[in-house]
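Long-time lurker, first post. I've been practising inverse folding by hand and with some scripts of my own, and I keep getting stuck on stretches where the structure tokens seem ambiguous. Below is the full token string for one chain I'm working on. Before anyone asks, I'm not after the true native sequence, just a reasonable design that respects the backbone. If someone could post their per-position residues I'd love to compare against what I wrote down in my notebook.
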């Protein structure tokens, strides 16, 4: 996905010339919270944000008829229309930017993109870090930019610990693909599955490996021969699908994993507020309390012996009581 596919080209109503005064930009700022300052050739000179304006308004010598240049931010961060959308999201998130101007090779503005639009495009599983594993190594969690990313990274590291050298691994709902690449560090081959075409294209581009195969499919449409994999991994999957789809998926996973093989799955535990279910992620339609998650795993995969854990930062401890964090289930197939 590229910026040009999602940017707005309607920048004129949100622009002004270099000779504009502050009074001129007040009304132009209301819709997107900034104004692009352009020269006569439509080249981007700078940007004025609502924050710039607020800081000037409280000044005792404020004059609404003074030049916009007094509050102008020169050389703002920009992107080209051919930039990968996920890279723009990460940049805007890191720099706390709401609006990013898009320019061409001549520094002329061609549009803009807003963070709200990007947040609606990418679900959380799509925006985890593009880790430079070749230079930093997988153990460097500083490559992740926030606590959620570090914990997501840790869940894949936990799953990696159950993979013997050269094993065959199925990574369901692989998202952007970095987890599949991590699993491959011990596995002989990995099959990564996700229902998002954009995520799979991203994975194929950034985590290309002759022993990793990425496929776009929903978990309800998967078909593999029995006993195809040594390990099945499913990090944050079943909370995204209806209960009946989750149950069928786990039943199928049970047949795809070889006798003696292992499944590692994680899902957030259902939280409650004022005695009612409290789900803050709009993508989660099937969060479950601890007891229900236990029952689902054991009913769908009766030939597996399970152990359940909860995540505390980057550690995983036995899940003995109800918990509002992530539950990680590890099951080993005992029967053929």
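-- Answer (accepted) --
I ran through it position by position. Result:
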């Amino acid at each position: 996905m590229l910026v040009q596919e999602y940017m707005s080209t309607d920048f004129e109503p949100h622009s002004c010339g270099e000779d504009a005064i502050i009074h001129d930009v007040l009304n132009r700022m209301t819709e997107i919270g900034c104004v692009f300052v352009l020269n006569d050739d439509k080249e981007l000179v700078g940007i004025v944000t609502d924050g710039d304006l607020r800081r000037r308004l409280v000044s005792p010598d404020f004059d609404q008829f003074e030049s916009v240049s007094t509050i102008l931010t020169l050389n703002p961060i920009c992107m080209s229309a051919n930039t990968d959308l996920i890279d723009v999201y990460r940049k805007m998130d890191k720099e706390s930017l709401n609006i990013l101007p898009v320019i061409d090779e001549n520094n002329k503005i061609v549009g803009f993109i807003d963070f709200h639009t990007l947040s609606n495009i990418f679900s959380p599983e799509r925006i985890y870090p593009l880790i430079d594993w070749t230079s930093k190594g997988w153990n460097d969690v500083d490559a992740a930019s926030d606590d959620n990313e570090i914990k997501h990274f840790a869940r894949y590291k936990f799953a990696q610990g159950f993979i013997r050298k050269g094993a065959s691994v199925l990574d369901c709902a692989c998202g952007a693909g970095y987890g599949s690449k991590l699993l491959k560090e011990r596995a002989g081959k990995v099959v990564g599955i996700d229902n998002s075409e954009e995520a799979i294209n991203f994975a194929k581009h950034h985590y290309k490996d002759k022993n990793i195969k990425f496929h776009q499919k929903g978990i309800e449409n998967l078909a593999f021969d029995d006993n195809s994999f040594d390990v099945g991994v499913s990090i944050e999957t079943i909370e995204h699908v209806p209960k009946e789809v989750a149950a069928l998926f786990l039943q199928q996973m049970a047949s795809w994993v070889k006798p003696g093989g292992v499944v590692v799955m994680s899902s957030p535990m259902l939280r409650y507020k004022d005695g009612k279910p409290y789900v803050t992620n709009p993508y989660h339609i099937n969060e479950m309390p601890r007891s229900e998650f236990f029952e689902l795993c054991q009913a769908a995969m009766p030939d597996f012996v399970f152990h359940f854990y909860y995540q505390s930062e980057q550690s995983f401890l036995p899940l003995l009581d109800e918990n509002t964090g992530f539950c990680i289930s590890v099951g080993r197939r005992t029967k053929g």
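A couple of notes from the structure itself: The domain at 125-333 is CATH 3.40.50.150 (Rossmann fold). The longest strand covers residues 257-268. Happy to go over any region you disagree with.
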